[in-house]
């Protein structure tokens, strides 16, 4: 009985996720007609990524660092920005 229960638990241990299979059409959508949507989605993603990276660059320029020319990662930028905002708020409250 123990062996069967353990086997059932092991069989269901995948978390319930299943992969979807793509229907026909082959690789990237040549004559199938779906390629235009994929290309448009890729273009939107490139635009979104460019927009996010531009915003991070603008934020990086506003955060003081030592040395001044040090390039911050995205995580460092967000953490230091939050810390810097908190510091500026405290400075304003003390005046």
Describe the structure.
The chain has a domain at 35-95: Irregular (MYOD Basic-Helix-Loop-Helix Domain, subunit B). It is elongated, with a radius of gyration of 25 Å. It has helices spanning 2-11, 35-62, 74-94. It is mainly alpha-helical and 95 residues long. Pfam families: HLH. It is found in: Nucleus.
Strand residue percentage:
under 5%
Number of strands: 0
Question: What is the molecular shape?
Answer: elongated
Count of separate DSSP helical elements: 3
Largest pleated sheet:
none
CATH class of the domain at 35-95: Few Secondary Structures
| Secondary structural class | mainly alpha
Stretches with pLDDT under 50, minimum 5 residues: none
Q: Roughly what percent helix?
A: 55-70%
- What is the second-level CATH architecture of the domain at 35-95? Irregular
- CATH domain fold name of the domain at 35-95: MYOD Basic-Helix-Loop-Helix Domain, subunit B
Our measurement of the CA-to-CA distance between the termini, rounded to an integer number of angstroms, reads 73 Å
Mean pLDDT: 82
**Estimated radius of gyration:** 25 Å
Write the element-wise H/E pattern from the N-terminal end onward: HHH
């Amino acid at each position: 009985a123990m062996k069967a229960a353990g086997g059932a638990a092991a069989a269901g241990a995948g978390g319930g996720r299943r992969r979807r299979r793509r229907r026909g059409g082959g690789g990237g959508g040549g004559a199938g007609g779906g390629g235009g949507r994929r290309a448009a989605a890729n273009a939107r993603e490139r635009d979104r990524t460019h927009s996010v990276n531009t915003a991070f660059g603008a934020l990086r320029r506003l955060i003081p660092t030592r040395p001044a020319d040090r390039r911050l990662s995205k995580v460092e930028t967000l953490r230091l920005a939050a810390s810097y905002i908190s510091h500026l708020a405290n400075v304003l409250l003390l005046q």
